[in-house]
TrEMBL record:
Species whose genome carries this gene: Deinandra increscens subsp. villosa
Region (Disordered): 18-58, 319-341, 393-415
UniProt feature, compositional bias: Polar residues: 322-338, 399-408
Record-given protein name: Transposase, Ptta/En/Spm, plant
Range of residues in the leader sequence: 1-17
Length: 415
């Protein structure tokens, strides 16, 4: 009997529970408006900004990273070079205003702030001319890359066809809205549009592309150097690495493969000639032969001489004089002389401004004097009919007397 009653209670309890759970759900479904908007589920959080925390994670507290420079190219090499480039990008995005559309126009005070930010994690040799010139070069490259990323975002949102729409979609990592508006104003200029089109056309002409990425040639050479005997790779090995993908599609394109074969052919011809002359070929000589072969092949298709030659390294120009130690020594007095010249220019500009203000004041006084003289002439003409003929050729004493009369007339006129 008790078992039957317990079973009935269990069935009744289960039925009541199901009714309670179904009833409110049906009621909510009926009361929901048909045109009520459905809220989208929250988006998955993506990757945040790179803070470069790994740069000093393994260092003792208060320690900083040292930067190693390549003797030949004066560029930073090693693992710290990559971390330094990342930090430069962070500093540019957080400190550098984008209203300056040329790197040389960025004020020295702004660059000093960026140097101080970099000094938090890295040792900067502020007194070393060559060192700081390359730091400035790295910041310049990151500045160009940052602006390029923002420009790509602007173009991707219809900047060329619908500038107002693109302006309303500011990139999230842009420093502030003021910077974004400055950039949009610059990109919307007709001169900027023509310049961008010309640069795109020039990039389209680059038949042989390089797969070196953001890592410099000097840093590629550093990582390819044999750690046991410290033997650097040959220029031909560097060229092969920058144009051949062993794990993917091989050569960048047929042009890169043909150029490489031509370089190897010219190298072999030069080597065979030296061997026939019983010349002992050293590693240094072989490297020079490869460099000359690369230059010779590229000279057939490359009419302009740039700062870099693929697989070879930098070609020093006058403006690259700071990359050599002698150039750095010569640039020290030149730098102080330049500062003195700048100070002189500023002083001359101030004097010119002051002289211009004085000239404007004198012009105003002369204008007022002419007006007073005209009034005086009209007054005297009404009183004396022969006044105009009498003053047509005034003597010095008469002119002085006229000035005195003019002053008296001016005083009376004011009264």
């Amino acid at each position: 009997m008790w078992e039957i009653m317990l079973l009935v209670l269990m069935v009744m309890t289960r039925t009541r529970t199901e009714e309670d759970s179904v009833g409110p759900a049906n009621q909510m479904h009926v009361e929901q408006p048909v045109d009520e908007s459905i809220v989208d589920p929250p988006k998955r959080r993506g990757r945040g900004p790179n803070l470069n925390l790994s740069a000093t994670r393994d260092l003792p507290k208060g320690s900083k990273l040292s930067l190693q420079m390549d003797d030949a190219t004066k560029g930073f090499i090693g693992a710290s070079a990559t971390k330094f480039a990342t930090e430069c990008g962070i500093v540019i995005r957080s400190c550098c205003p984008m209203k300056f559309h040329k790197w040389d126009l960025v004020p020295k005070e702004v660059k000093d702030v960026m140097y101080e930010k970099l000094q938090v994690k890295f040792h900067l040799l502020r007194e070393n001319k060559v060192f700081m010139e390359y730091v400035n070069t790295r910041l310049h490259l990151q500045w160009k890359r940052t602006r390029g990323t923002l420009s790509a975002h602007w173009k991707g949102n219809g900047g060329r066809t619908n500038p107002q729409l693109a302006r309303s979609k500011m990139k999230s990592d842009c420093r502030n809205e003021e910077d974004w508006n400055h950039l949009c104003d610059y990109w919307e200029l007709e001169s900027t549009r023509k310049y961008n089109e010309q640069m795109e056309a020039n990039r389209a002409k680059q038949v042989i592309t390089c797969r070196g990425g953001s890592r410099s040639i000097a840093n590629h050479v550093f990582h390819m150097t044999n750690q046991e005997d410290e033997m650097p790779p040959s220029p031909l090995e560097v060229y092969h690495k920058l144009h051949f993908k062993p794990s993917k599609s091989g050569w960048q394109n047929d042009d890169a493969r043909i150029e490489y074969e031509s370089i190897v052919q010219q190298k072999n011809e030069a080597m065979n000639k030296l061997i026939s002359e019983d010349v002992e070929i050293t590693s240094a000589m072989e490297h020079e032969i490869e460099k000359e072969a690369i230059k010779s092949v590229y000279a057939k298709t490359k009419t302009t001489k740039s700062a870099w030659e693929v697989g070879v390294g930098p070609v020093l120009r006058k403006k690259d004089n700071w990359m050599t130690s002698s150039g750095a020594e010569q640039s020290q007095p030149a730098s102080s002389e330049t500062e003195n010249l700048k100070d002189q220019v500023v002083q001359l500009q101030e004097e010119l401004k002051k002289n211009k203000e004085e000239l404007d004041q004198n012009k105003e006084k002369l204008r007022q004097s002419d007006e007073r003289y005209e009034r005086f002439s009209r007054y005297m003409s009404t009183k004396f009919a022969d006044f105009q003929s009498s003053i047509s050729a005034p003597l010095g004493s008469e002119a002085s007397g006229s000035d005195a009369q003019l002053n008296e007339f001016s005083d009376d006129d004011q009264v």
